[in-house]
Write a structure and sequence with these properties.
- By secondary structure, this protein is of the alpha+beta class.
- The chain has three helices and three strands.
- It has helices at about 15-25, 25-35, 55-65; strands at about 15, 45, 50-55.
- It has a three-stranded antiparallel sheet.
- Strand 2 and strand 3 (about 50-55) form a beta hairpin.
- The chain starts with 12 loop residues before the first strand and ends with a helix.
């Protein structure tokens, strides 16, 4: 299993595994929360590649708190 580095995550584009590690939930939960509007919409950057903007995620965390 690969170690996930979340240093300076607010300035990065995050994949679903990094999002799951950041929130401490499963990958399936990240997709459910995204579909429900709890998380910002990710950007499609390739055929099988999706990324969340770290700054948008940080702003969503702040507004939810």
């Amino acid at each position: 299993m690969q170690k996930i580095n979340l240093d300076n995550w607010q300035t990065k584009k995050l994949n679903v595994r990094e999002m799951a590690a950041l929130y401490g939930v499963s990958i399936a939960t990240i997709w459910r929360w995204t579909a429900a509007g709890r998380l910002p919409q990710p950007q499609k950057v390739g055929i099988n590649t999706t990324r969340w903007d770290g700054a948008a995620v940080a702003a969503a965390m702040e507004s939810a708190a």
